[in-house]
Amino acid sequence: MASRCDCVPGADDPRIAVIGSNMVDLISYIRRMPHEGETLEAPDFAMGCGGKGANQAVAASRLGSKVLMVTRVGNDIFAENTIANFRRNGIDTTYVLPTDATSGVAPIFVDEESHNSILIIKGANALLSPADLAAAEADVARCRLIVLQLEIPLETVYAAIDMGHRLGIPVLLNPAPAQPDLLLERVRGCDFLVPNESELSLLTGMPVDTEQDVRRAASVLHRAGVRHVVVTLGSRGVLWLSDEGEELLPATSAHALDTTGAGDAFIGCFSHVLVETGDIREAIVQANVYAGDSVTKRGTQTSYATAEEFARVRAELER
Ligand code: RIB
To answer: Which atom of ligand 1 is nearest to the CA of 300?
Structure first.
C-alpha cells in the first residue's frame, strides 16, 4: 500500500502540537478487584505523571520530536511536578496554563494479569477552552501535526480540528477515552483517526466482535471522510484503512506486565515517525514496536523508551 503522507512534508525542525490532558496517575497494583464492601490489601503502589495528552507528548519528545503542549494544570501540589516533568522531557510549556481548580488525577488499578481499570477526574483539564487554544494559534501554526484526545472539552477538540484545517496542518485524533457525545460529523475531517476497538464501536454504533466487523466499522469512518483510519487491536496489531486500501500490521509479541498507557505510547511514536519521515506505514510499524516495548515495563510514562533505548529494542528485534 502507498504509505506516504503528502500532508507531512518533512522539515528540519518538526514540531508536534499536543492539545490535551495531563493527569497524576495513582497506580495501585492489585491481585484482584475488591468486591463491594470489601477491603483488600494491594501489594504495591506508584505515583507518576500521566494523562493521555501528556503521555503522547512525552513519548514523541523522548524519541526526538519537538513538542508543544497545550494543557491546563491545577493550583495544587501536583501542578509544579507536572510542569517540571514536561520540562525534563524537553516539552515546550508556554501553554501549560495554571488554573484555579484541582489538577487532573487518575486512580488506576492493575491486576496480576495486567488488566487495568482507570478512573479519571479531569479537574483543570475540563477547563481547557477554545479561547486557550486561540491564544496558542501562532505557535500551533508552526507545527507539522496536531494531536488530540478526549480528556478535554469536546468543543476544544472541535476547535482544534477547525484550526488544523484553517492552518493546513494535519490533525490526528485519538478518540480516547470513548465519549458517547463525540459527533462523527465534527471529526470526520481528521487526517488520522486512531481508535481502539471499543472507541471504534461507540463512534460508529457498529459491532466489533470479529475482524470482519472491525473492517466494516473502520470503512464507515473512511467513507465518512477520515483520510487514514488506524485501529489499534492490542496484541492482534493495527488495521490501517485509507484511499489506497487496507492492511493489517501485526503487533510485536511481548510479555505484558502493565499495558497502561500503551495506546499513548503508540500515538506518541506514530506521530514522531510520521512527522520525521512522512511514511505512514513505517510510523505504524515502529509505533507497534514502541507500544509493545512499553507493556514490558510498569507505569505509563515510566515505561516509554528514549530514542537510544528504542534503537536498542529495534536492533534486538532485527537480530
Ligand atoms: O492512557 C493512559 C492514561 O489514561 C493514564 O495515564 C491516565 O492518566 C488516563 O488519562
So the answer is: 6
Residue 313's alpha-carbon distances to 114, 154, 264, 316, in angstroms, are 21, 37, 18, 5
Inter-residue contact 235 to 251 (CB < 8 Å): yes
- The predicted-structure confidence for 245-303, as pLDDT tens digits, reads as follows 999 999 987 788 999 999 999 999 999 999 999 999 999 999 999 999 999 999 999 99
Whether the per-residue pLDDT at 198 is higher than 90: the answer is yes
Give Rg (Cα) of the chain: 18
DSSP lists the bridge partners of residue 92 as 68
| Residues tagged active-site | 264
> Residue 182 maps to which CATH number?
3.40.1190.20
**Phi then psi dihedrals of residue 174, to 5 deg:** -100, 100
Cell numbers that stand for 244 in this block:
489506497
> What is the CA(165)–ligand 1 centre distance, in A?
28
pLDDT bin (cut points 50, 70, 90) of residue 12 is: low
Assigned domain for 40 exists: no
Residues 127 and 213: their CA atoms lie apart, in Å, by 36
**Which residue, by CA, sits nearest to atom 8 of ligand 1?**
51
Assessment of whether the complete model's pTM goes beyond 0.85: yes
Closest CA to 59 of 302, 229, 314: 302
Taking the centre of ligand 1 as the mean of its atom positions, its distance from the CA of residue 52, in whole angstroms, is 5
Tell me the torsion sign for CA atoms 198, 201, 205, 210: negative
For residue 243, tell me if it sits in a domain.
yes
* Structural domain boundaries enclosing 238: 15-22+51-104+122-318
